[in-house]
Amino acid sequence: MTAPASPSAPVRGVYLITPDDADTARLLARVEPLLAEGPTWLQYRNKTANTDLRHEQARALQALCAAHAVPLIINDDPALALAVGAAGVHLGGTDGDVGAARALLGPQAIIGASCYDQLGNAERAVAAGASYVAFGAFFPTTTKVTSSRAHPDLLRQSAALGVPRVAIGGLSPDNVGPLIDAGADLLAVVSGVFAATDPVATLRAYLARFQEPSA
Q1: What ranges in 129-198 are assigned the alpha helix state H?
Q2: Range 92-98 contact pairs with CB under 8 angstroms and sequence separation of 24 or more
Q3: Are the C-beta atoms of residues 169 and 202 closer than 8 Å to each other?
Q4: How far apart are the C-alpha atoms of 175 and 138, rounded to whole Å?
Q5: What is the DSSP letter of 173?
Q6: Model confidence pLDDT, tens digit, residues 85-139
Q7: Across the chain, how many H-helices and E-strands are there?
């Protein structure tokens, strides 16, 4: 078993995930105002980009994230994370081995794993060295096709794993209260912020939910 990287401070807040955008300058312009609001992490995810564009965008985002002291996580590509000096990688269920990513990126890397609606997936990921686990989708989502539907009880049941728990899938400022109460440390959002009429105000609304007293 490889011990996961231990954050120096509690991890809690919004985990922003980039939308597919082929225009790098436009993507940076969309992301930068949000970084100034203090999201916990930014994940670079672009399922439509070719290799060259992924490298271009990842390098540009890494520089932007460094300027705002926001760790950059790369979706599904440990080699790209290493190449651009990102803080870590997020792996889907069929996108690679957590242990191999840990061996490549080192003990301080942030390595996350999609665990869908299965506690067993989370247990195996943490045993292999994952820094955090993600459950979802909690609500219907248009960002990706998913057949899993997670229940808030998963967040409670996974507390003993000792790593941050991420909730994802159809989250809005109006529906995340029960997930935070159940133990979600991070709210992962794509279109919930980037497709909003006012992305900055919407991000602030998500962040404000962590300041409310528990139900």
Answers
A1: 153-157, 177-182, 191-194
A2: 93/121, 97/128, 98/125, 98/128, 98/129, 98/130
A3: no
A4: 10
A5: T
A6: 999 999 998 778 999 999 999 999 999 999 999 999 999 999 999 999 999 999 9
A7: 9, 8
The pair of three-digit structure tokens given for residue 76, joined into one six-digit string: 């599904």
Give yes or no for a contact between 87 and 39, defined as CB atoms under 8 angstroms apart.
Answer: no
The 10 Å CB-count burial string (b at 16+, else e) for 52-64 is eebeebbbbbbeb
pLDDT in tens, 10-41: 799 999 999 999 999 999 999 999 999 999 99
Measured in degrees and rounded to the nearest 5, phi and psi for residue 187 equal -110, 115
What is the rounded (10 degree) CA torsion for 20, 62, 16, 14? 180
Alpha-carbon distance of 210 to 198, in angstroms, equals 20
Distance, in Å, from the CA atom of 12 to the CA atom of 100, rounded to the nearest integer, reads 26
Give the tokens for residue 39: 């999201």
Banded model confidence at residue 145, pLDDT cuts 50, 70, 90: low
- Nearest-5° angle of CA 19, CA 22, CA 26? 75
pLDDT at 5 over 60: no
Question: Which DSSP letter does residue 185 get?
Answer: -
